[in-house]
């Protein structure tokens, strides 16, 4: 299992140092939650902030766009150093154009589904994706409870991908911790985002190692 600490739970006054700390603690990817106050009822940070912290690690930047118009801003996030961009199928941009735009710049692309969106919504785009992100909380805030009833989506996505002759990595985001990650692992999840469970732990390295052991 790959672990992507969500910087949403870090100390924003020293975000660069926090990224470096996560690198040393064994994070696989850095998960950066971008919220625009419109697609979700919260605002975090944008491309200029990501650019300033890009140099603190060589690990992949997994940029989760919770914004209404990802097509408009994709270039900015790519220029800021995103390695993977995931955006919501529920957004207002043209989905295919946004996928094509991101891929044209050699950045990995994934679609995200909110809890009320069925997994089948991403099926028409699967052949063009590098991963799918299944939300296990309503997007917008860290520290919410894990929705285990989202896990059947993982097998649905993987089965549909298999029909197309491809393998699709699936990431889950929200409420992942020592107790919930085993369920995600047995559902076949490849990458787990974890905010609270890593940043509120006394020993982040130990927390990441324990999560990853699943
Ligand atoms: C929620 C974000 C998540 C969040 C996870 O909108 O996409 O990445 O930070 O935080 P925890 O692990 O605390 O649920
Ligand atoms: Zn996220």
Keywords:
binds D-xylitol-5-phosphate; binds zinc ion; 214 residues; globular; alpha/beta; TIM Barrel
Which fold name is given in CATH as the topology?
A: TIM Barrel
How many beta strands in the DSSP annotation? 8
Portion in helices? 25-40%
> Can you name the CATH architecture?
Alpha-Beta Barrel
Bound molecules: D-xylitol-5-phosphate, zinc ion
SSE pattern: EHEHEHEHEEHEHEHH
**Rg, alpha carbons:** 16 Å
Specify the number of helices: 8
Structural class: alpha/beta
Gross morphology is globular
Distance between the termini: 6 Å
Strand order of the largest sheet: 1-8-7-6-5-4-3-2
Whole-number tally of structural domains: 1
> Main beta sheet, described?
8 strands, parallel
Broad CATH class: Alpha Beta
Uncertain runs are none
Q: Which homologous superfamily in CATH is the superfamily?
A: Aldolase class I
